[in-house]
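Lab notes, practical 5.
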Amino acid sequence: MRRHRTTARGVLFLAAILGLAAGTAGAAAPKVPDHIVFPVVGAVSYIDDFGAPRPGGAHQGNDLMAAKRSPAVAAEAGTVKYWTTSRTAGCMLYLYGQSGTVYYYIHLNNDLTAKNDNRGKCVRGVAYTVRNGARVAAGQQIAYVGDSGDANGGAAHLHFELHPGGGRAVSPYPYLQKAYKLLFTAKAGSPFALTLTGTVALATLDRLVVNVATSQAWPSATTLTKLNRPIALAVPPTALVQTITPTLRTVASVTLATKGQKVVVWTQPAPATLKAERGDEGSLTSALIQLN
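Output from the prediction step:
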């Protein structure tokens, strides 16, 4: 009888283990969002240097070279946590994304001037723009690019890491290649305007879709090139539509635009929002449209 009970317990235990294993195998693997927000706003250069040899081991991220104090923004919605005690990382921030992905923002700013003075600390206003533990939206500015830690004195850049499910690092490069780049960043509610240059994708009486190549933001003077993304703008009755063929003249309707035609659009001044920074549908309104 004792042997039977022991065997039964063994069978139940084995079944529980097998069930647990099956459940684990069936669970969805952590997945990075298909399109994150590019973590730096402004002129940026980078290569796929993930895995490159470094003094401390293989490189665990990509270095995004940018001007000191360039805005660093949230790759997706989530919660931020400061990390301020690493000599190599310097001023660092974790972004715990709502997808389960954890993003590392390393070598943030620690200077109080344009020079490499190292007089600042890893605090809000110097390295960070949000409080420790804050919940943030995708595209919200969270920090400033710098050269703290073992990057001190070198070219300013953001060392950006991507950890699906909070696990081991994977190359951010393919995600950066298809990430959404913000057109600008500004304090919510502050006035802005954009100049968008590209080609016509679609034109109706009250809507214009532009395949944007270059964006200029005012008053920040942020210029982005090689955007190569469609942006839909509202076209109100007050919008001025002009053609340059070869002289400048005003026309009645944007519906005269043809697909592939070169176009420059000036937007109406408006209060800054995250939707406008991303160029979301309905967030930008045309003031002047010039068709070439």
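Observations recorded by the TA: Confidence is low (pLDDT under 50) at residues 1-26. Residues 83 and 92 are 5 Å apart (CA to CA).
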